[in-house]
Amino acid sequence: MPVSIETVDLTRIYRTTSGMLWRRKQKEILAVDRVNFSIDRGELFGLLGPNGAGKTTTVKILATLLEPTSGSAFVEGFDVVKQPRRVQERVNMVTGGERMLYFRLTGRENLRYFSDLYGVPRSIAKKRIDEILEMVGLSGRGDDYVEQYSKGMRQRLQIARGLVNDPLVLLLDEPTIGLDPHIARDLRAFVREQLIRKQGKTVLLTTHYMYEAEELCDRVAIIDRGRIVALDTPEKLKNSVSKEISLKLTLVGEISSVEPLLKKAEGVTAYAFQQQERGEVTVTILAEDERSVSSVVSQILSFGFAVRRFETGKPTLEDVFIKLTSRGID
Amino acid sequence: MLNILSVVIAEVRKQALQYFFQVRTLFWNVILPFAMVATFYFMYLPFIGKGILISVEPLVDLPIVGFLVAGQVIYNLYTNMILGGGFFDAEREQQTLEIMLLTPASRFAVLLGSALAGLLLNVWMFIALVLLIALTPGVGVNVQDPTALFGSLFLSVFSLLGLGMCLGCIFVLTRRGGQISASIQEPIDFLSGLRFPVRILPGLLQAFASVLPLTYGIRATRLSLIGGATLLDISVDLLSLLVMGLLSMLLSRHAIAVIERRAKKEGTLTLF
């Protein structure tokens, strides 16, 4: 399979300043740290990580909207820094959220405008816009103003905009964020059926939803604090923790009081916390075996914590993330 | 070339659909010139017919009302061009600047289209103002050479188009486009001779004034609309406007490439 996207030691540092005149301070944030991956043509590749992990920065570099501080990236063989126009002809990007559209134009006018910017000939553009609107289920609403669209419709129009230049590569940056579950499900089905199976496009999807990455992606790279900590198929990644037992508990208490207990617990290979509302903590634990599970649960109970929920199951990608980073993904 | 033209048309069309051909804005766009003329008329009414003259050149005296009104018309066009340059700010706010720059479209064409849109949305109001003022009694309209007036208006518009494109470049780079356009208005209002002849300013300030296209646009329009000047009389002003227009367009063509690259390096294309 020919390579569609490739990054080599891709690094991006943001330099920000803060403070007033004489107290001005410069700060450096390492957003992407020597990231290496390659994506085959027609592959659906996931970049999975928590907020601030470097996913969007990576996507923006590939979309030519941001330059790397060092390293390089290629899309369809073209360097994103040295040959940005060549890359722009072959790529498009869709992000989550409902902006990035002209609300005072109709859906069709939005698509026509972007077709013109991509230099799509009028005769082709008209036919293509009709087809795309049909494909995303907006053919009946194409002549309505975008400001009259629902959130889901705007997101579908975003996808349509991402297809106006018939790109070889589509970058989907958290495309389902903020969408109702059923709309997100439809969108995932659209990506899988239309973009991958029927049109054979290369798709790079960033998400912090584990199930989305598991359900859609051929391969997943887990990214944390700008670095790729694991890269493989979802199955193989899960196999890396298959011998362990995943345990999820919801307790009444504070993280600070639960953590010392887990640090000392025998047989616990990794854990992560999430403070919830109403004084509850969700604890995800990877334990070596059933005996370790019993041991840690009885310790928690002996310390007087009330357990609201208790779940064990097969390890998921979230467990892989916890094992690699000792942190939850949300 | 065809692609550039198609991008320019797409940009003008988009801005026109967004900001002009909307029922809610169309009404005000039609009413505004009348309201402006009424404002000028009543503001200067106490001076009409009083025979007050302003000396713009050693041997050229113009009636004060015509002097102020002609200056105000060009200044209004200039203000609208600055606001037109601010289209990029609006793009940034609605998060469309990124997806616009994601395309391989010529940035010069986008800039030109955006500035042209600003111009087209305002030039009809400008023409309407000139016509309404010409028909208003007591302003002191004295056109001896229509080609001189046409040349003044056309080249003022042309040079301001170039200025609008340069401002558009700056607005791509910075997130403070609105602040910049607001803060440059007062100095330019002062230096361009909107309310007094530039020749009464101290030498250094006159030198600053001489680099502003608005100074030449206001002067040429005043002299051709009120002072009865011929094409030859204002040829230096017209030539200056032409050169400034061409230079600023060439400058914007190079600047947009440099500025886009810098914005990508610094990560300032996004709003947040």
How would you explain this protein's 3D organization?
The complex is a heterodimer of chains A (330) and B (272). Chain A has 330 residues and is of the alpha/beta class. In chain A, 35% of the residues lie in helices and 32% in strands. Chain A is built from 11 helices and 14 strands. In chain A, the strands form 3 sheets. In chain A, strands 6-7-8-3-9-10 form a 6-stranded mixed sheet, with helices on both faces. A 4-stranded antiparallel sheet of chain A has the order 2-1-4-5. In chain A, helix 3 crosses helix 4. The relative contact order of chain A is 0.13. The mean pLDDT of chain A is 88. Chain B has 272 residues and is mostly helical. Chain B has one domain. Chain B is built from 11 helices and 2 strands. Chain B has a two-stranded antiparallel ribbon. Chain B is globular, with a radius of gyration of 19 Å. The two termini of chain B are 35 Å apart. The model of chain B has no long low-confidence stretch (mean pLDDT 83). The interface between A and B is medium-sized, with 31 and 30 residues.
- Say how many strands of chain B there are: 2
Helix content of chain A: 25-40%
Mean pLDDT over the residues of chain B: 83
Distance between the termini of chain B: 35 Å
Task: List low-confidence stretches of chain B.
Answer: none
Summarize the largest interface: chains and residue counts: A-B, 31 and 30 residues
Mean pLDDT of chain A: 88
Could you describe the largest sheet of chain A, including whether it forms a barrel? 6 strands, mixed
Rg of chain B: 19 Å
Looking at how many chains there are and whether they match, the oligomeric state comes to heterodimer
Helix residue percentage of chain B:
over 70%
Low-pLDDT residue intervals, each spanning 5 or more residues of chain A: none
N to C succession of SSEs of chain B: HHEEHHHHHHHHH
